[in-house]
Amino acid sequence: MSIWGKVAGAAAGLAVGGPLGALVGGFAGHMVVDRDNETPPDKQVAFTIGVIALGAKMAKVDGQVTKDEVRAFKEVFKVPEGEAHNVARVFDLAKQDVAGFESYAKQLALLFKEDKAMLHNILDGLFHIAESDTSLGPLERDYLATVAKHFGIGDAEFSYILARHIPAERKSPYDVLGIPPQTFDDDLRRHYHRLVVENHPDKLIARGVPEEFVKIATRKIAAINEAYDEVRRERRL
Q1: Are 87 and 74 in contact (CB under 8 A)?
Q2: Are the C-beta atoms of residues 33 and 13 closer than 8 Å to each other?
Q3: Contact 137, 229 (CB under 8 A)
Q4: Three state DSSP letters for the chain
Q5: Overall domain count for the chain
Q6: Domain limits at 221?
Q7: 56: exposed, middle or buried (C-beta count within 10 Å: 0-12, 13-18, 19+)?
Q8: Rounded CA gap, 70 and 74, in Å?
Q9: What is the pLDDT along the chain (237 residues), one digit of tens a residue?
Q10: What's the rounded Cα separation, in Å, for the pair 74 and 214?
């Protein structure tokens, strides 16, 4: 079933609630509900709407929404034929202004308080949109840092996420891996394998992340592998 059908189903009776639920209600009346599955998982819907809302508001934070940002948004959610008008409607509703994005971030943090990895996945989606216009401006960076803060992600951890997405932020491969250079070899191996397992696309799908995020997850794994290979060569492992 299309994720857009799930979103419409949520508004038709599967409550998401809170600010995200209000956004769903703003456009679901213009969508056709797919009834193949009457009980879509609420958290998957919340995840999707959360990325839409935060992504749209971030695209607007620097004053204008570029075509590249809209294209990146459509890459995150591979829009099927006939659903483009629904995408445009939800994106337009959410991007109206920057005010209110923190309420979305706080609600997502509460929904996924037991699954920190999902919050990281949301940030990955937002970074994908932010990177689309070739540069990450200071306003976008501050926006992402504020979202991360509401997600319970500290400054050091945010810097690692930044390094994985923005090459200019990478002082060393250790930044991408999120560990200090003095980490012992055995600890390095364990840390690397944990990163690969946590970010494997199949695991993300099993966790409830929309399949559209596989491309982003694959790119993230590639950055982690490249950094690990560089460290291995450096250490002659």
Answers
A1: yes
A2: no
A3: no
A4: CCHHHHHHHHHHCCCCCHHHHHHHHHHHHHCCCCCCCCCCCHHHHHHHHHHHHHHHHHHHCCCCCCHHHHHHHHHHCCCCCCCHHHHHHHHHHHCCCCCCHHHHHHHHHHHCCCCHHHHHHHHHHHHHHHHHHCCCCHHHHHHHHHHHHHCCCCHHHHHHHHHHHCHHHCCCHHHHHCCCCCCCHHHHHHHHHHHHHHHCHHHHHHHCCCHHHHHHHHHHHHHHHHHHHHHHHHHCC
A5: 1
A6: 3-235
A7: buried
A8: 6
A9: 444 555 444 444 444 556 766 666 554 443 333 334 433 345 666 677 777 788 878 877 766 666 666 666 666 665 556 666 666 666 676 666 555 788 889 888 888 888 888 888 888 888 877 776 666 788 888 999 999 999 999 998 898 888 888 887 788 999 999 999 999 999 999 999 999 988 887 777 776 666 667 777 888 888 899 999 999 999 988
A10: 14
Residue reference for tokens 């056709």: 32
- As given in the structure block, the two tokens for residue 7 are 């979103």
Which tokens hold the place of 54? 């935060």
Name the pTM for this structure: 0.75
